[in-house]
Amino acid sequence: MSLHLTATVADRDVDVSFDVADGCTVALLGPNGSGKSTVLSVVAGILRPDAGRATLDGATLFDLAGGTWTPPHQRGTGLLAQDALLFPHLDVLDNVAFGPRSTGASRARARDTAMTWLRQVDAADLADRRPSALSGGQAQRVAIARALAAEPRLMLLDEPMAALDVTVVPAMRQTLRRVLDGRTAVIVTHDVLDALLLADHVVVMDGGRIVEQGATRDILARPRSTFAAGIAGLNLVRGRAEGSGVRTPGGLLVAGMPDDETVHEGVTAVGVFSPAAVSVHLERPGGSPRNVYAATVRELEPRGSQVRVRTDELAADVTVPVVAELGLAPGVEVFLAVKASEVAIYSA
Q1: Which of 19, 108, 216, 217 stands the most exposed, by the fewest C-beta atoms within 10 Å?
Q2: What is the per-residue pLDDT for 71?
Q3: What are 299's strand-pairing partners?
Q4: What are the residue ranges spanned by the domains of the chain?
Q5: Sheet of 51-56: strands edge to edge?
Q6: Secondary structure element (H or E) that encloses residue 320, with its range
Q7: How many Cα atoms occupy the beta-carbon half-sphere of 65 within 13 Å?
Q8: d(C-alpha 143, C-alpha 136), whole Å
Q9: CA nearest 242: which of 232, 230, 228, 252?
Q10: 3-state secondary structure of 323
Q11: Which CATH class is domain 3-221?
């Protein structure tokens, strides 16, 4: 295991423990204020936790009980933030050469290393420019090269594309996918595409705690937290297992198909289903066994040939003709129905 982290930051109510395997990229997901950036700061050595221990490739980064604290520049970590934070008085080549130079490389060798990494991120033609002459996307490419030129054992990326124009994000994502391949990294992101394309493993945080973790595709296909379900575009209801369904705290029984051998009567469980499986009605539907919810339309979101109908709790995908036929608009009272066969239930 490359990174092992256990840390408590009392004043931010953060208490976490997780591992990152060698050569694996882990995505930290969660709503704003959930503690993701705090975790990165602890690993990087910018923030000292109240308790805990972290090791990287067998070396101790900190051990609060044992009195060990390795300073940031000796940890073998590279931190890439939202802003490139390039040195304004240095040109691009010397910005990237800064890491090798700080570890004792000669100026010539450091510059050779810098050019190698600038080529890796398609920024070699920027070598003689000052940061003030770079676009946001160009500056972030240079920042990636600078971080990697220091040959970190662990890359830490804190929403590296959040400050970029949306038009350059896809190319930047491909760059990161290429340079992170086979490297050990932790990336904080809100974007499901970052998790899918860059990460092998996902850790979901909420309220300073880890609420679920696992292989990226497993988490996004079978989420156990509201946040993960939301970014995966799925509906999720939570409650206690009852029969073949889930009884919510509000008393509603959601029938489904148990998809987990650990679902036993009374355990905390979730029911997950696609918005495409939800039908919208103006009157309560009858017919085959189904779950029916009374709801109020809050928002209509165009999604290509379909429209996502959002209510306070659930979402449904319908066609444009259905929206017109039913007169759907914010404030309209509706019934949402989904067949029990479309609801996967598993323990939370």
Answers
A1: 108
A2: 95
A3: 310
A4: 3-221, 234-347
A5: 14-20, 3-9, 51-56, 59-63, 68-69
A6: helix 320-326
A7: 6
A8: 10
A9: 252
A10: helix
A11: alpha beta
Cα radius of gyration rounded to whole Å, the chain: 24
- C-alpha 79/C-alpha 44 separation (Å) is 7
φ, ψ dihedrals at 155, nearest 5°: -95, 135
Query: Which residues of the chain are modeled with pLDDT < 70?
Result: 1, 259-261, 288-289, 348
Three-state secondary-structure class, residue 153 = coil
Quick one: three-class SS letters along 12-35?
Answer: HCEEEEEEECCCCEEEEECCCCCC
Residue pointed to by tokens 């067949």? 339
Mind giving me the DSSP string for 204-241?
EEETTEEEEEEEHHHHHHS--SHHHHHHTT-EEEEEEE
DSSP string over 159-199:
STTTTS-TTTHHHHHHHHHHHHTTS-EEEE-S-HHHHHHH-
3 state DSSP class of 36: helix
Which token pair is 151? 């040959």
Give the bridge partners for 241, in sequence order.
246
Residue 91, pLDDT score: 95
pLDDT score recorded for residue 160: 86
Interior CA angle at 267 toward 261 and 268, to 5°? Answer: 105
Alpha helix stretches (DSSP H) within 66-186: 92-102, 107-120, 136-149, 169-180
Q: What pLDDT is recorded for position 17?
A: 97
DSSP letter assigned to residue 97: H
> What are the contacts of 303-312 at 24+ separation with CB within 8 A?
308/275, 309/280, 309/334, 311/336
- Rounded Cα distance between 295 and 64, Å, is 51
Q: What is the DSSP letter of 11?
A: G
Fold that domain 234-347 belongs to in CATH: OB fold (Dihydrolipoamide Acetyltransferase, E2P) (2.40.50)
Neighbours of 323 (CB within 10 A): 18
